[in-house]
Protein: Sensor-like histidine kinase SenX3
Organism: Actinoplanes missouriensis
Amino acid sequence: MVAVIGCAITLAVFTALVRRENAAAEVQMDRRTAAAAEAVRSETRRYVEILRTTAAAAGAQDTLTATEYGHIVQPLKTMKLAGATAIVLIVPATDDEVAEVQQRWRRLGSPDLTLTPKGNGEHAFVVAGIPLDGTRPLGGIDMTQAVAPADTLAQARRSGQPAVSDTYQLLVDQDLPSDQRQNSFVMAAPVFRGAEQQFLGWVMLGVRGQNFMGDTLQHAGQGLLDLTLMAAGTDRREVTVAELGAASEGERDLVRTVDIPVADKSWTLRVSAPAAGLPGARSAFPLSMALGGLVLTALLSTLVWVLASSRDRARVRVRAATAELRAGEAASRRQADLLGAVLDGISDGVGVVGPDGKFLLHNPAAIRMLGKGNPEAGVESWQGHYGLFQVDGVTPFDTEQLPLVRALAGQDSDQVEMVIRHPDHPEGRVISVSARPIETTTGERGAVAVFHDITERKHVETELRGFAGVVAHDLKSPLTAVRGFAELIGDALDDLEAGGGADALQQARRSAGKVISGAVRMEQLISELLDYAAARDATLRLDEVNLRSLVDDVVTARTDHLDGPDLRPDIFVGSLPPVQADPVLLRQVIDNLVGNAIKYTPPGQAPRIDITGRREPDGDVRVQVADRGIGIPDGEHALVFDSFHRASNGGAHPGTGLGLAICRRIVERHGGRIEAAPNPGGGTIFAFTIPASAEHRAPSLVASA
């Protein structure tokens, strides 16, 4: 029975963790696809607007000359337009107008212009422009000789709006080796003059596709996504404009496709990625938890079997386990001795004093721990100079009991703990001191001491003692219940076999329910422990977050399943500014606060919650969640954010005491702060700060940043 229950619990936990990781992978993929698509949209809109602005500036000239056009487009050289080859001015001409157009533009600033028509009929000649990639100018070339740019010029003239060509290889790249040519495109905008919209020609921008989108896709993919940008070719089949492969290997089991409007056409962005390569999407943790659960189940099953077996067999196993434990303790002591020797030789402080008690040597580590001493100072001045206290940090350390003083008297001291507090260390440092007597070359007695800074270890030990105590208690309670009720199930089954009837069956069902309840409590504690660890260790994925949309999603998820007017909370959501945060972790903060506000409500009273926010003068956004619940007793408002602390009036409500600790970790990792205060109308007000979105901060704050 113990084995079956343990395996069932392990399977349930494993399945929940796998589902959670799969959901995280889908969320990561959607967020990264949206970011990549927006990056492509922004870059293409930028190029279209540059072309539109240039065409408008050209049309605003009283007399458009090659020199004036050069002045208009000259700033584009410094804009580092990725993939751009040249921005040129194109004018139309028929076969009969070629000579006249050539002569006119030679007078208008292109004296060496020679028009080279291709074929008969309508032509479109480059009469002015500047290269943007260092290639040779294209003056005089007839752009109608290629199908893609000719169609683009015609479309732009018909629509009066910028147009983009099908994908093809630029005329300027025809002289390059075939392996260096890129799938490229041109953008064209018509040039009109005056209110009568007199057509003068076109402004055209040539762009190499891979160079154009390379930087954008690299930034959007972050080495995790396969990105392919597709557009129609001259034969109307899809052609790759640019592509970027992910560094990670594995099956691309997540795929997204997004259509992106570009001028008068639509391109397609295809995104794929291996779920295992996305942060937080795949890990060995579910399998580790499953293996751990199976191991624990095996241990518990073995323990039950041992308890049920004979006394002699139990004694044999106890003796064997005792021998193994002693061997492990001996090995641990040897490892501790070796580790101590290594630490002493690498990073610990060393101090040597002579027979008169004056320091002869301080190594750098000792100076960092103790502060720079006075070589002429004797034993009597150590207390005042170094600030030596007992581990309570208050009681001065007796000079006669100092390890170095005892060593001068011929006594060994091992790992004596004390507190050092002086102007160099006003907050106090805890050190462990070991001292030995030595003999000088003249035969007199001196002393050597090794100082080890154990401040962080003391802090960790204090935290671990509290952590281990609470976890052990909270896990032991459901385990004890599981074991006890499992035994009751066994007794009930024995009664059934003996003809116990309905009462025995009912007892078995009640006990099974208690077993399941204990398992659910263990699963809740494990889940919150995972969230607590993730709030500390997970990588922050900062992005601009629509806080109002996020809060609305949380409120909907928390209330949609509630039926009936008496059960449905009254939740008001005010105006909430956008913020810069990790959307997954920020959602967890909002969800915990809203969930607590709903849970900690007096019986028979519908929850009432107000969620508001405002921008602070320092550039942060302050979010406030106010409820009309049972409140927090005086003196406990700060303590509720500690790990495993539960308010003294919340015993009737289930919980582990980790929810608000998780909130504090997440908020502080974003550089903010969280606090709780009484609500004047009854209940509690929780408030936290989070950085505002960069583009919504006050101008003075953005400038200073």
Q: What stands out?
A: The longest helix spans residues 2-59. The chain has five domains: 34-273, 310-346, 348-453, 475-535, 538-704.
